[in-house]
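User: What would this chain look like folded?
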Amino acid sequence: MQLQERLAAIIEPTLEGLGYELVRVQVQGTKRQTLQVMADRVDGAPMAVEDCSTISRALSAVLDVEDPLPGAYNLEVSSPGIDRPLTRAKDFVAWAGFDVKLETDSLVNGRKRFSGRLMGLDEAGETVHLTSEDGEHLVPLARVSRAKLILTDELIDAVTKRFEQEH
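Assistant: Here's the prediction, encoded as structure tokens.
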């Protein structure tokens, strides 16, 4: 099991118990590592500073017991933000219709970087469909190493409307 998978396995139950879901976990740095945890509220409400504080306190206790990283490290908890990373299959469905940038772990049709309008996933949930000025692109979801929404006025308006509808 890779480190990020192990960390996710430790972190996810605590988040779920608090009403959050894990978006991404990353470890950065070499001398003093930083464990970055990105989470969303299950109820869809925007994350507040208090949410990050609650998560940080709970995860600190769990991570102290599990001790998954050698030596000292910093724990950083954040929300995905408006121009959020797309890390789960459901993200590619939920954010269809918006502009994205994505990278693959190996060449797909001669390239590793794509940007364009996210059209969602195929019926099997295995292929990301993008349209751009240079045509349509079908990218296997399993080959996507990074994907992120592009901050546009359209995205800001949509996120604002979603928030207003929910509250």
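The chain has a mean pLDDT of 92. If you want, I can go into more detail on any region.
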